[in-house]
Amino acid sequence: MQAFAYQTPKSVADAARAMTAEDAKLVAGGQSLLPSMRLGLSAPSALIDLGAIDELKGITVDAGEVTIGAGTTHAAVAASTAVRHAIPALADLAGHIGDRQVRNRGTLGGSLANNDPAACYPAAVLGLGATVNTNKRKIAADSFFTGIYGTALGEDEIITSVTFPIPAKAGWQKFKQPASRFSLVGVFVSKGPAGVRVAVTGAGANGVFRAKELEAKLAADWSAAALAGATVSAAELNSDLHGSAEYRAALIPVLAGRAVG
């Protein structure tokens, strides 16, 4: 691992100013960036640690919405009574991310900014029709994810929080890779202010996506029975040593049905 500068700003404004350094990287929980640095896959000239910025942490529920600070850990979301009451499926998702170390260090904002194609949080954000709030603007979930490890974030843009509309119903199911606990296929379903949404992670060749064909079936009949016999095309799905595209395609409607309950 090469040498790098290290900064610990105390505000979002200070962090944004520090981003002007050439090849500087933000680090939140460090659960993705630090391993890639150890492997030599990433070599930033400076790390800007967001961990000391209190304004990035916390959970509030107001006017039919749950807003979670970008620096809030997965463990804090999973343990939050407010989240468990308002959106139980979101708390369940957070409680099964990675292992205990990852849950206690990894953050909501870090997960979304990294946008790993098998990460869990992108499915919740897309599946609930959430809004990603940054230091510059608000980005709708449908516009935020742009491909594998790609997002709509600008070079000096920092996620500050995410606002989730509280759904009438929601569910989450993950078929995990046993060693990493990443999703071979993960499906988040919801019925609420953003309509009926079905978001899939771990399966798409271009990252997280909405399964529109399943959304149409659930919009007509919100039940597991409505998905009996439903199919998803394997044309744009991943195929690797853990499972073929056809295998993942078969899993998606099954997990969606289980998530509906």
- Indicate the CATH topology of the domain at 169-260: Enolase-like, domain 1
Q: What fraction of the residues are assigned to beta strands by DSSP?
A: 25-35%
Following the backbone from N to C, one meets helices and strands in this order, namely: EHEHEEEHHHHHHEEHEEEEEEEHH
> How far is it from the N-terminal to the C-terminal residue, by CA?
47 Å
Relative helix content: 25-40%
Mean pLDDT: 95
Indicate the CATH architecture of the domain at 169-260: 2-Layer Sandwich
CATH H level, superfamily name of the domain at 169-260: CO dehydrogenase flavoprotein, C-terminal domain
Assign the structural class, choosing from mainly alpha, mainly beta, alpha/beta, alpha+beta, or little secondary structure.
alpha+beta
Number of helices: 11
User: In the CATH hierarchy, what is the class of the domain at 169-260?
Assistant: Alpha Beta
Tell me the overall shape.
Answer: globular
Q: Tell me the major beta sheet.
A: 5 strands, antiparallel
- How many runs of DSSP E, i.e. beta strands? 14
Structure description:
Among the domains are: 51 residues, Uridine Diphospho-n-acetylenolpyruvylglucosamine Reductase, domain 2, CATH 3.30.43; 92 residues, Enolase-like, domain 1, CATH 3.30.390. Helix content is 31%, strand content 25%. The protein has eleven helices and 14 strands.
Summarize the structure.
The protein is built from eleven helices and 14 strands.
